[in-house]
From TrEMBL, chain A:
The keyword Phosphoprotein does not apply. This is Ribosomal RNA-processing protein 43. Belongs to the RNase PH family. Residues 31-166 form the Exoribonuclease phosphorolytic domain.
Automatic annotation (TrEMBL), chain B:
CDD domains: RNase_PH_RRP41. Belongs to the RNase PH family. Residues 21-150 form the Exoribonuclease phosphorolytic domain. SUPFAM superfamilies: Ribonuclease PH domain 2-like (SSF55666), Ribosomal protein S5 domain 2-like (SSF54211). Transmembrane segments: none annotated. It comes from the Eukaryota. This is Exoribonuclease phosphorolytic domain-containing protein.
Amino acid sequence: MAEIYKLIHPVKYFNDYISRDIRPDGRKFHEQRNIKVNVNSLKTAEASAVVKCGNTTVVCGVQLELATPKAEEPELGFLVTNVELTPLCSSKYRPGPPSDNAQVQSYMLSDIFSNSKCIDLKDLCIVPDKLAWVVYCDIVCLDNDGSLVDACIIALMASLKTLSLPTVTYDPETEEIKVDPDVRTPLKVDGCPVATSFAVYKLTERNILLTDPSAYEEEMCGGLGAHFTVCLNKGLICGNHKFGGSHLLMENQEEVLKIAKERANLVVKVIDSCIKNEKSIDK
Amino acid sequence: MPGPDLLSSQGLRLDGRRPNELRRIKCKLGVFTQPDGSAYLEQGNTKVLAAVYGPHQAAKSKSSTDGVVVNCQYSTATFSTGERKNRPRGDRKSQEMSMHLRQALTAAIKTELYPRSQIDIYVEVLQADGGAYCAGVNAATLALIDAGIPLRAYACACSASMAWRAGQPEPLLDVGHVEEAAGGVVLTVAALPNTGSIALLEMSHRLHMDYFDVVLSRAMQGCRDIEIILDRAVRDHLAEGWTKQDIVTI
């Protein structure tokens, strides 16, 4: 019965829940979904992580390549992030070139990541002007059930925290490159940016914020990707996005920051304990 | 014409398997919520995901009154191989694989039941360690079953190769990446073992005619073995599903 009601009166159905201070999936307004992290599950990648936030599932694989640094920035290496929204993850995506939404998500992720300054690109340089690492971080979304950026950033940070770079020796005279994959140095990661998404729902006279929205809630609040995302790295804001959808009020800001801060602490704990578990199994 | 050394003097293969042994297959149905049917399958170190959407109304240009249009996309994640792939899909190899996938699965689906409709099957290879196509077919079959689409029989795919041991031919089942790279012959068969029919057959490198039958029968035996594994997975999944539903109704 409820399914039919949802189809015929989608807005009223959603309103009925919200006006009774509960969300359709049974969560409270500021309750988040469970986060599950698993690192190093793929053997072909240098580092990898699988992250599940509720039903949203993403896989991040990191691979390394060597390249010559850009002439304008001879001391910097490269870190390339890419998000792929395959048609596998939702019926909304069609096969073919990446959709506008996918490109925006991908751009937003790399923007947040470079703003957070958690990786110093100078660490990726081996010999200035001659040789540097290219770190390719490819994120594949397997199931998109809302708050995609949150999950992507967790996957990205979990895999980067486990990444270690092989030692490279470069002979300037013969230009010979030797890579020793057995001697590795872990990549320096400064802090850990954590994104938190909120959907803004306008219920007559009242603005309601839903933390960690699902795909259905995102759609009810103005379409996919119209949610408000805050990203914190060690208490500093490194990304703040709100594209379209319902309007956001000034008074919500404080509340949002408080929740984002709590979530950031929680996620850092989850990632750290996951990596610690993985290491203890390896031993 | 003895090929590269694929068997040890004890008759074991490079990864320690016996010649007629499959790699371990782990599979799970209904892993995701968004698609109508989904499945995850691990065959040794090859890890594959399949999702099925449909049957739904076909795009006008594709629509056919004879039966359902099966639309397949095979893509490999950029991090699935040791060296990074630049194009996860749309290159020749994946297009060829998408086509082969469609051919094998169309043979299994009762297409005549859904005229003017379309079924989308997406296969994503997360880690490739040889036999990714075979794993893709097996995963897609499970995903189709999870979606509740009527099939004639299980479509199973398996590969076989050829090695010599003390001058005697010895076919190898379920070829891994190392054996593939060693340059031996690889025969890929997609079959409906239940009906005994072969939906797709592809062979790389060359093989003497006299030995073809031996290799083919070994590959078919592999398909039959895989069918048993898939069937058990489906039954386990359904048994689980029924108990869950019972709890809800009570």
